[in-house]
Known about the structure:
alpha+beta, three-stranded antiparallel beta sheet, globular
Amino acid sequence: MSAELDLFQGTLDVLVLRCLSHGAMHGYAVARWIQEGSDGTFRILDGALYTSLHRMEEKGWVEADWGISEKGKRARFYRLTPGGRAELGVRSVNWDRYVVAVAKVMASPGRA
């Protein structure tokens, strides 16, 4: 059995927003932050990550500029906008409610 799990639909965006709340990062750093933060449970594929970043850029939640990575390579650095920070707040509250609700259902006794 693989130690990796698939993300539930809609989860990647909130993880990326949370990552960028720590400051501007290029895509590879975002993917590495999520992988390391999940102890290797989530491995983010490039296609999914950049689709998420572009979608959030279109919604005005992130902005990007070209810069130079720590390895001296040209990279696009993404950062949260005020709208992205507000969206992270909403999604964080909703995520907390979701986790509590799923936990309640999973702990519910069966019906006879």
